Amino acid sequence: MSQPPASPPQKDHGRAGRDLPASIASAVVLLAVIAGSLLFWKSAFMLIVAAAVAVAIWELHRGLSAKDIDLPEQPLMVGGVVMVLVAYFWGTPALVTATAVTALVVMLWLLRRGVDGFVKNASASVFTLVYVPFLGSFVALCSPRAATGRA
Question: Domain residue spans in the chain?
């Protein structure tokens, strides 16, 4: 009788629990991209913020799913990116409108799933909408373009 091959031992990354050189390299690259966008093409920074909003919604979805909360990722991500962009190009009134429209779309999306768990999922979805894209949009509102209408 042959034994199945043993799995290779896991690499020990020390107390940090992650590969420190890879973490440092990714941080340096991310900081270089952010600094480059702010120095050379400020509008590209809003694309980085929009991508960060989408990633943060994905992370919250993963975290909340452990507690049996199911966020509708698609409308939250699309609405979040739209919220950042309209805040950058058209300012506060457009951000408020985009937030309200996104909240309505999210609730209608959840209603299509049925009423089981609607209140729990809708509450978490509106929390996510305000916590990530709405607050992230303030970066766009603080930009010179949002204040003056020019880049």
Answer: 42-148
